[in-house]
Automatic annotation (TrEMBL), chain A:
Family annotation (PANTHER family): IMMUNOGLOBULIN LIGHT CHAIN (PTHR23267)
Gene3D superfamilies cross-referenced by the UniProt entry: Immunoglobulins
Organism whose genome encodes this protein: Homo sapiens
Quaternary assembly: Immunoglobulins are composed of two identical heavy chains and two identical light chains; disulfide-linked.
GO CC terms in record: extracellular region; immunoglobulin complex; plasma membrane
Protein name: IG c1294_light_IGKV3-20_IGKJ3
């Protein structure tokens, strides 16, 4: 069973700054099966990135994903006020077909 | 536009069975290549995948919950359901139903329903 670790746990930044979030897997993950989500208080998560680097429908281009193997990164190029939230990575393992979430990174206002 | 809506009791007693139903509208639950599943989030904590049912009917469960979970589908009603047995306070969470795609993540979520386990 693959375990996902996210770092840092909390990232304190100011609007306009660049945010770099890390997701590390305990064993190699297919890039096709790595996704990122944003969650704000009281809301369901929203899909941002799938296939490690493809933006979901309607996601601004300030959000980008990269990585392969065991190390993946979500980058927010310039933080907007609405980007302060919790971010989760998620992987799909095909044998057996299980879905796993990371513990999350909170991006809060410095 | 695909919509998912959870329904079921908001309060369950310890040792009893939690039962939730997800009603899908705007799309068929029989569509190929989709998993329909449940994800939960304890208050103040992260997301936990509970399990999924594939369009073919095959079910897959989180190993940590497998002995207590059953997910089933009713294609005639375009619904799928979750049963979690022998609940404890640790099962108190917001429960989301969702459509999952292996290579495209979870793009469709229900609004979530809070289930509290308490006597």
């Amino acid at each position: 069973e693959i375990v996902l670790t996210q770092s840092p746990g909390t990232l304190s930044l100011s609007p306009g700054e660049r945010a770099t979030l890390s997701c590390r897997a305990s064993q190699s993950v297919s890039s096709s099966y790595l996704a990122w989500y944003q969650q704000k208080p009281g809301q369901a998560p929203r899909l941002l990135i799938y296939g490690a680097s493809s933006r979901a429908t309607g996601i601004p281009d300030r959000f980008s994903g990269s990585g392969s193997g065991t190390d993946f990164t979500l980058t927010i190029s310039r933080l907007e006020p609405e980007d302060f939230a919790v971010y989760y990575c998620q992987q799909y393992g095909s044998s057996p077909p299980l879905f796993t979430f990371g513990p999350g990174t909170k991006v809060d206002i410095k | 536009q695909l919509q998912l809506q959870e329904s079921g009791p908001g309060l369950v007693k310890p040792s009893e069975t939690l039962s939730l139903t997800c009603t899908v509208s705007g799309g068929s639950i029989s569509s190929s290549s989709y998993y329909w599943g449940w994800i939960r989030q304890p208050p103040g904590k992260g997301l936990e995948w509970i399990g999924s049912i594939y369009y073919s009917g095959s079910t897959y469960y989180n190993p940590s919950l497998k002995s207590r979970v059953t997910i089933s589908v009713d294609t005639s009603k375009n619904q799928f359901s979750l049963k979690l047995s022998s609940v404890t306070a640790a099962d108190t969470a917001v429960y989301y139903c969702a459509r999952l795609v292996a290579a495209a993540g979870v793009a469709a979520w229900g609004q979530g329903t809070l289930v509290t386990v308490s006597s």
